[in-house]
């Protein structure tokens, strides 16, 4: 691609790269843990490639069959994870290289986009404007500033490369381009499944440039179809049949509602109203991308009726867009091409074909926004006098670049991201829960004043539960905050609430045992209430039978009450759990002595001294 070295290409590349230079010192954020920093396959470097390509994308994080398919259909996106693993082999597990590479790829994406527009025979000024507006659009910050977003960058980058060679094939009728079409489209699919919709862009492009030889078009599309076939076959082997049945958990299915304290599916009108509301929200973010949020989970958008003015306006607005596509298909072909590009690539994330697990997400607009920018830029150049084109473009670029540069700073850490975005979507159950969790983590990092963070966490977690009463993770985290505050009875209540929702919730059961244990210790050592201490410690033993400290504390508490026979029994259980623990044998010896069994006491004391002479 000789033209890639043109001055315009370098300017576009540098613009995209430098726009995200203020992310280079950012940490791992959000889903970076799932695909990078805490993914066992990725952390194993290139030695993890086998696992990356042979398992669901989330498997390396969860390490449990079935649990990785928390969203309908599963996820098979190995290519970006393979590059993360390569980074680990070269640079170790750290975020700086990831952020720099994302910015480099984004700049390259801008160049490939511009070259495709040139091949489409778009007017040069229009091509430059589209490329710069796409690169600068603030809605793309989630994709570039979040290392995990590389799957989106690769998906569009490779799809555009496939389109570039498809256009060369149409222009020069050379079979040498066909292999590149199939290869790059296959890589796009390996990056993210959303690229499946891009198969519709090839014939759309042929229509746009006025290609009449549809046999040549079919030949150019055939390698891409082969790529789809190979991808779907590999995906089926790795993940199994695609099951798009929506779950009945609100965080994975936005089309649920509470009815008699049970979550049930919305009816068709309620679902349509929610979809129309999310669609008009996308249009607002594309036109005026401020303020932004990474999260739009329930109830970030209120549940409106089908007769609500916003819903009706959205329906009429989108019908008008479709009508304009038809009316302007000849006079303003650029607009029709762009809007059709938008609808084709938007279809998979529209919540119409199948539920995508959330109301909407800014990253879902990454590929569709290209079509939208083509359409809007085209029509604006038609409506606005030519003498104002450069002035308007300059104003919009400065505004977009400023918003993007500022938004990047929200992605510095999980705390900066969550605390900023909660101001934008205060009624998101997931975001309230996430911020509560981060505040608990921050409290553990503080030597003083950690109670302030914990109390803040309780406020956000309480709101998450008020929005989503069956949010088991929010109940768990609320229990953790109360446990750290020493509010043991409230912590026990929270953990039991989580277990009432999911009796097999391991984390809640384990933490319930800790709450009983630490509460028992507190009641015995701080309040001198041995009866309550023993009661709580026995409950801890019932919940979890392998906690040495519970048995030790029970032995101490019973011995303090003079119940030496029972104390011996609990100390014996402690010794069974940790037979090489000298202190365990020492405690058993003292209990035997108090019971009057001098022979067993001496034998246990001898064993304690053998294991730990300091005793």
Walk me through the structure:
- A hairpin with a 2-residue loop joins strand 1 and strand 2 (262-265).
- Helix 11 runs parallel beside helix 13.
- This protein has helices spanning 7-19, 32-37, 40-43, 49-54, 59-62, 78-91, 96-119, 124-136, 141-145, 150-172, 178-191, 201-208, 214-239, 268-287, 309-327, 333-346, 368-383, 389-408, 414-421, 429-445, 450-467, 472-484, 488-501, 506-525, 530-543, 548-560, 564-577, 582-595, 598-611, and strands spanning 256-259, 262-265.
- The model has no long low-confidence stretch (mean pLDDT 92).
- It has a two-stranded antiparallel sheet with strand order 1-2.
- It has 29 helices and two strands.
- The longest helix has 26 residues, at 214-239.
**What oligomeric arrangement do these chains adopt?**
single chain
The chain-level structural class is mainly alpha
Our measurement of the CA-to-CA distance between the termini, rounded to an integer number of angstroms, reads 77 Å
Output the strand order for the largest sheet: 1-2
The biggest sheet, with number of strands, parallel, antiparallel or mixed sense and barrel status, is: 2 strands, antiparallel
Based on CA inertia axes, which overall geometry fits? elongated
Mean pLDDT: 92
Poorly predicted tracts of residues: none
- Helical amount: 55-70%
Radius of gyration over C-alpha positions, nearest whole angstrom: 30 Å
How many helices in DSSP terms? 29
Binned strand content? under 5%
Q: How many strand segments? A: 2
